[in-house]
Write a structure and sequence with these properties.
Elements (H helix, E strand, L loop, with lengths): L2 H46 L6 H13 L11
């Protein structure tokens, strides 16, 4: 086998492999985009619809964390 034909075969194989990897990356990006859209609609429905999460409850939890009133299990407040 000649060096040139071997080089052509390697280049063709690497090109096919690169195309396959590119298609997989595009499919992953599209799947991630769909998942983010789904998450966005879930969060939007929860906040706007008054469902699972209410904004005033979230701010209450954040304020408790800021003030340090929350303690881990087993810790005693001094």
């Amino acid at each position: 086998m000649n060096i040139q034909t071997m080089l052509v075969v390697v280049i063709i194989l690497l090109t096919i492999l690169l195309l396959f990897v590119g298609v997989q990356v595009i499919l992953i990006i599209l799947d991630l985009r769909r998942a983010i859209k789904r998450l966005n609609t879930i969060l939007e429905d929860a906040i706007l619809g008054g469902g699972l999460i209410k904004p005033h409850k979230l701010t209450g939890i954040v304020e408790m964390l800021r003030k340090g009133k929350m303690q881990s299990h087993g810790e005693k407040q001094v």
